């Protein structure tokens, strides 16, 4: 219990815990003694600001998915997400839009293509809104995601920035998922890998059997690179089957274009602007980008880049 002695008819009580309920009452004191307590008043302090989980935020040209931690031990009533557009000089536009009464610790926000936004979150209870969280910058130039470290094979290492996977153990097939935003539209990213690395890159449904190879079932699609004694072999696998294709120039930077509306997944040699193959499929649900290495090496994902004109023609 906190006691504050004052001579005025008002006082400030400090050092209260955030997002906590307090009972307040007043007694008067004179030379005769202490009066009975006043009627008790209930007061709720405002919450602590949430903490945005930047590694778990994703975006595309039409939207962004923002995820955060509450920042409070006790539950809060809801959250407000605030966003403002950045000017070309990097300053805030001054016009802030709020999305209020968000019930959970994530929010899918519809945005305009080719812009940059400053986004923050406030927690709200009956005492009012918290201070705003740290601000993050979200770009809608292209698709943006991180590799999901919790989905990585134990033999894989993920770089601190979340975009490169390393594998230096014995020859196994090891893989990791990317955290693609759940928005039906067009998504584009690029993968950089040297021509001495055997790899699989593609997409898969979230319920794809983790013990199976990428492209070996009807819930995943992939481009596979295999080193043989005589040549570099490339396969485009779905349900264990690949068309008979030959690629004469080994791509070291591969563009991946996913179009939900048209039902296509296409691969390109970025350096040559060359189309390699397109899967035609009607995606029944959202897919995750998938990346696998079949021998020791490294693979880097490049995203938040604008899709070249030739990718969705």
From TrEMBL:
Stated name of the protein: Fibronectin type III and SPRY domain containing 2
SUPFAM superfamilies: Concanavalin A-like lectins/glucanases, Fibronectin type III
Transmembrane parts of this sequence: none
Organism: Seriola lalandi dorsalis
Keyword Acyltransferase listed: no
Residue intervals of the B30.2/SPRY domain: 125-309
The keyword Coiled coil is annotated on this UniProt entry: yes
Keywords: Coiled coil
One Pfam family recorded for the sequence: SPRY
Domain Fibronectin type-III residue range list: 1-45, 46-143
InterPro entries: B30.2/SPRY, B30.2/SPRY_sf, Butyrophylin_SPRY, ConA-like_dom_sf, E3_ligase_FN3/SPRY, FN3_dom, FN3_sf, Ig-like_fold
Superkingdom of the organism of origin: Eukaryota
């Amino acid at each position: 219990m906190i006691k504050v002695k004052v001579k005025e008819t008002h006082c400030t009580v400090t050092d209260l815990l955030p997002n906590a309920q307090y009972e307040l009452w007043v007694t008067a004191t004179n030379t005769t003694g202490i009066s009975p307590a006043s009627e008790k008043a209930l007061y709720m302090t405002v919450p602590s600001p949430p903490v945005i989980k930047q590694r778990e935020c994703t975006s595309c040209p039409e939207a962004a998915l923002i995820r955060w931690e509450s920042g409070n031990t006790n539950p809060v009533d809801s959250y407000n997400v605030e966003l403002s557009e950045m000017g070309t000089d990097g300053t805030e536009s001054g016009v802030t839009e709020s999305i209020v009464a968000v019930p959970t610790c994530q929010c899918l926000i519809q945005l305009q293509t080719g812009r940059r936004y400053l986004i923050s979150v406030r927690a709200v209870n009956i005492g009012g809104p918290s201070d705003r969280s740290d601000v993050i910058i979200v770009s809608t130039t292209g698709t943006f995601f991180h590799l999901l470290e919790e989905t990585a094979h134990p033999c894989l290492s993920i770089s601190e920035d979340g975009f490169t996977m390393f594998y230096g153990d014995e020859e196994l097939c090891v893989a990791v998922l990317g955290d693609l935003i759940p928005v039906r539209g067009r998504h584009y990213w690029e993968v950089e890998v040297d021509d001495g690395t055997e790899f699989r890159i593609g997409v898969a449904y979230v319920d794809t059997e983790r013990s199976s190879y990428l492209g070996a079932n009807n819930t995943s699609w992939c481009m596979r690179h295999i080193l043989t004694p005589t040549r570099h072999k490339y396969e485009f696998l779905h349900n264990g089957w690949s068309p008979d294709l030959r690629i004469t120039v080994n791509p070291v930077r591969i563009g991946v274009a996913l179009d939900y509306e048209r039902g296509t997944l296409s691969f390109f040699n970025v350096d040559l602007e060359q189309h390699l193959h397109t899967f035609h499929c009607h995606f029944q649900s959202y897919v995750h980008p998938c990346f696998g290495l079949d021998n020791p090496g490294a693979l880097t994902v490049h995203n938040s880049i604008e899709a070249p004109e030739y990718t969705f023609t």
